[in-house]
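A common beginner's mistake is to predict each chain separately and then try to dock the pieces by hand. The better habit, illustrated here, is to supply every component at once so that their relative placement is modeled jointly.
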Amino acid sequence: MTKYAILGFGTVGGGLAEVMAAQKERLAAVAGDELELGYILVRHDYPDSPWQDKLVKDFAVIESDPDVSVVAEVIGGVGPAFEYSKRAILAGKSVVSSNKELVATHGLELAAMAKEHGVSYLFEGSVGGGIPLLRPLSRCLAANRVDEVYGILNGTTNYILTAMDEQGQTFAQALAQAQKLGYAEADPTADVEGIDACRKTAILADLSFGGNLDPTAIPTTGITALAPADLELARALGYAVKLLGRAMRRQEGCLAFVEPHLVPLGHTLASIGGVMNACAIRGSAVGEVIFCGPGAGRHPTASAVAADIADAVRHRKDPMIPDLGKAGGALVPAGGLISPWYVRAMAEPDEVHAVFPGVKLIYGSTQECGFITPPMDEPALRERTALLDSRAALRVLA
Amino acid sequence: MTKYAILGFGTVGGGLAEVMAAQKERLAAVAGDELELGYILVRHDYPDSPWQDKLVKDFAVIESDPDVSVVAEVIGGVGPAFEYSKRAILAGKSVVSSNKELVATHGLELAAMAKEHGVSYLFEGSVGGGIPLLRPLSRCLAANRVDEVYGILNGTTNYILTAMDEQGQTFAQALAQAQKLGYAEADPTADVEGIDACRKTAILADLSFGGNLDPTAIPTTGITALAPADLELARALGYAVKLLGRAMRRQEGCLAFVEPHLVPLGHTLASIGGVMNACAIRGSAVGEVIFCGPGAGRHPTASAVAADIADAVRHRKDPMIPDLGKAGGALVPAGGLISPWYVRAMAEPDEVHAVFPGVKLIYGSTQECGFITPPMDEPALRERTALLDSRAALRVLA
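With all components supplied together, the output reads:
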C-alpha cells in the first residue's frame, strides 16, 4: 500500500480525488500496489467534503509523513507550488504536476533535484490536459529523432475561434460567451494572449529538442486581434483559423513560436473544435502522429495526473524523469520560416495583383479581400504588404 | 549492455534494425542500458546486408544465448512466430511483437507464459502501426474505465476508400492502384474483407474490456461491396465512408464488430486519408481521445517495436504484460446497436417517404438516391429497407 497526497483542492484537485477513488483497482494494477489518499492540502475549510478527514492546511504534515511517497501538485502558479514541490522532493517523495507554468519555468531545476534524490518527477497533465502526450513523446517514440511538434494547445482560445467561425461572433462576444460557460477565466489574459500555449510549447520543445527554452522569450501572438472577417475569409479560402504553438529542430537550436494560423480544412487539426486540443509530432521513424482530446477540465486533467501517480509508484526503485534537456539552448528566430501567408486587405484586384501576381482573391462581407500568398519568409511578406492597405496577415500551415 | 534479437528480416525486421541503429542513444536512455543487436533470424541469405554477421538461420542459436534478453518477433502469421515466441519466453527472454494475428489469437496464452516466466510481452506495433496506442490505452489512461474504442485500423482499405472518394474509382480500380503502389498485397483478402481490422479490434477490446474475444467470432464486413455511388452519395450527404472496427463495454460483455460506416465530415476520423490509421478511446474520466498516424510501414511499425524493446529492457526486473483479460468473455450481438443508417435505393421520393417519412433525399449520378434514417437497430432497418429497392445500407457513426 502506498500513500499519496494532493496539493490543492480546486477543480483538478477535487477531480483527482474522485478519479483515484473511482478507478482504484485499475490504478493499483498499473502501480503494482494499492494507492491510498493520505492528505489533501487546502487553504479553506470544506465542511461538506467527503474527504473531510484527509484535509490539512499545513504542508509540513505531508512533508514529514514518511508513508507519503507521491505528492500531486495541482495548485498552479509558481509561488507555493514551487516551494512545496522542492520540499517534497527533498523529503524523498516523487512529485507529479499539471502545472504548466511551473514546469515551463522551473521544470529543469525540479527534474535535477528529483534525479539527485532518486524520485520521479512527472507532468503529463501540464500539456494537453487529459491527452496522453508527454509519455508517448518521450517513451513510445524513443526510436525517433523528433523534428517538429505543433498543435492546438489551449482550449479557451480554440473555443473562442470556433464560436467566431461557426456563429460569426466578434472576439469580444465569443470571449464573453466562453467566460459565461466557464471556459475562460475572469482575467483571460494568459489564454487569449497565447501565454498558456507558449508555456506548453516550451515544455514540448524541451522534451523534443532539449533546449530548455525560456518561455518568456518565445515569440507569442494571441488571438485578440483577429476579426470575424478573418474567419469568414479563411473559410471561403478553404481554411480554419487555429492558434498553434510550434517548435522545430534546427541545426542552431530550436525554432519556436505561438501564432494564429490558417489550417487547411482537410487537415486533422481543422477538425478540432471547441475546447479540444490536438498535438502533432513529427519523428524520423514514425512520420507524423497526432493526439487529440480534451486539453483541460476537471476529470480529463485528473486522468493524466492519476496516471502519473500510478507510474511514480510503479517506478519507485527506478525513477521516471522526462529529459527536459540542458539550460541555454538557442532559440532560432521564427521570421526566417518560409510559409504561405493569408493576407486580408482593403484593395481592388489589380492593386493586389500588382504586388502578389496571380493570387486568387476572395471578397467577403466587409468589402475587404483575402488571399493566400506563395511561400515566403516574414520580411519578404512585410515588404510587400506595406504596399497595400493590408489589415491582417496570418501564417498558413503548409 | 543488453542484447536483443530480431526474428524475421522482411519489411518490419529490416526497418527495425535500421531504426535501432539510428536512435541508439535515445533508446539507451529510455531502456536504461545500451542495446546491442545480437542476431537476426532469416530464412534466406542476404549477402549484401550490412548486418551480415548477425544473420542466423537456426532459432536455437538465439534461444540458447543467455545474453539475449529480448526477442522481437516480426515474422507474422501463427506458425513459426508462435513457436519461437513460446520458446523465447521459456528460455527467459522477453518477447515483443507487431504480429496482430498471433496476438489476437494466442496473446492470452503468451501473456500467461510471460507472467509465469517473469518476462515482458509487449505488442504496441500490432495495432495502429507506429501510433502509440496500446501503452497509452493500458497505462496512460489507467484512471479510466474504458467504455468504447473505435477506429480506422487498416491502412490498405482506407487507401482504397480515399481513392474511390477522391478519384471516383471503383473498388477494383482502387485496389489495383493500391497493389501497384505496394499498399495492398497480391492476395488482399485479409485487408479488404476486414479480417486485419477485426484482429486489431479484438486486441483493443481485450485490453479495454478484458473479454479475450475470439477474432473469428467478431461480425466483420469488409469493403468489397461498396460502390462508387456510395462514396458519392455519402459525400453529398456530408459524410466520408470509413471501415471502422468498434468495440463497446456492455453489462453482458463486449459488443464488437467491423463494418464500413458513414462518418460526419467534421469528425476527426473523416480527416484521416490514405494509408493513415486513427483510433478513438472513450474513457470515464478523460472523455474521448483520438490517436492518428501511420498504421503500417517499414519505419513506423519498427518505431513501435523498438520502443517495446527499450521498455522490456527497462522493466527487466518488473515485467510489463498488458492485461488481455480472461478467456471466455461474452460477445454481444451488434444487431441491437441503435444508429442512424445510410441507405442507397433505386426509388422515387414518394416510395422512400412512404417507408422513411421525412428523410432528406440526395440523387446521385446513377439515378439512385441516398438518405440517412433516424436512429434504429438493424432488424428495424431491414424490415423497412425490404419494402424498397434498396441497394446498400451502412451504419452512420453518430
